[in-house]
Design goal:
mainly beta; four-stranded antiparallel beta sheet; 0% helix; globular
Length: 226
């Protein structure tokens, strides 16, 4: 399901009440959907599933306009199937993350690997279809299920985490290569999620033991526990 925020009541600016309105239900996966991610550049949303695929939808507002209607409500949003990636992962695709450029997509799977995808060169025609995508690199090293993957704010780093209690930091190299910069073992239980700071080289990881560990990349040490 996708939703948009609209003003429920118009009046004094301090008294506007907002509500969420469902605008679409995106169907196509044949098993549980685990995660969704908006492309930061294009009008695209991607989803991943236990069916081992990634699906993408393009979207537009009715009439191709961004402004609201005369009654203050938002224009209708139309979603169209754009492409499907048969990832080749052997198990559930648990997490996805777009690079800041919107040109690459990382997938993290319960098969303990992370794959990085990009659109095939020359397959970038305008329109509903997003063409074919190819796997440019497979990042391996985790001993158990990968639970989350995230790009840094400049797109130069990828973080992944796993049931094996570790967080791996990968540096993007030329020609689609990746180098492992560090393996962080600060958690004592399953690591569920990683998230980069939107402007700084700070990474937070969350674990089953009700703990969040913010990490500063320059030292690769835990700087605070809460």
């Amino acid at each position: 399901m996708t939703a948009q925020i609209e003003p429920d009541k118009l009046g004094d600016s301090d008294n506007i009440v907002y509500s969420l309105k469902e605008v679409a239900t995106l169907e196509g996966h044949s098993d549980r959907v685990w995660a969704v991610a908006w492309n930061p550049v294009q009008r695209v949303i991607a989803s991943c599933s236990a069916d081992k695929t990634v699906r993408m939808w393009s979207y537009n507002r009715s009439g191709g306009r961004e402004d609201n209607g005369e009654d203050g409500s938002s224009k209708a949003v139309e979603f169209l199937p754009a492409t499907e990636i048969t990832t080749g992962h052997r198990k559930t695709v648990r997490s996805i993350a777009w690079s800041p450029s919107g040109k690459n997509l990382a997938t993290a799977s319960f098969d303990s690997s992370v794959s990085v995808w990009e659109r095939l060169e020359g397959d970038e025609e305008e329109g509903e279809s997003l063409g074919e995508w190819e796997c440019v690199s497979t990042l391996e090293g985790h001993d158990s299920e990968c639970k989350s993957v995230a790009y840094s704010n400049d797109g130069g780093l990828i973080a992944s985490c796993s049931r094996d209690k570790s967080v791996w930091i990968w540096e993007v190299q030329p020609e689609g290569d990746f180098e492992c910069l560090s393996v962080l073992m600060h958690h004592t239980q399953d690591v569920k999620c990683v998230a980069w700071h939107p402007r700084e080289e700070l990474l937070a990881s969350a674990s089953l033991v009700t703990r969040v560990l913010p990490l500063r990349l320059s030292s690769r040490l835990c700087i605070r526990r809460s």
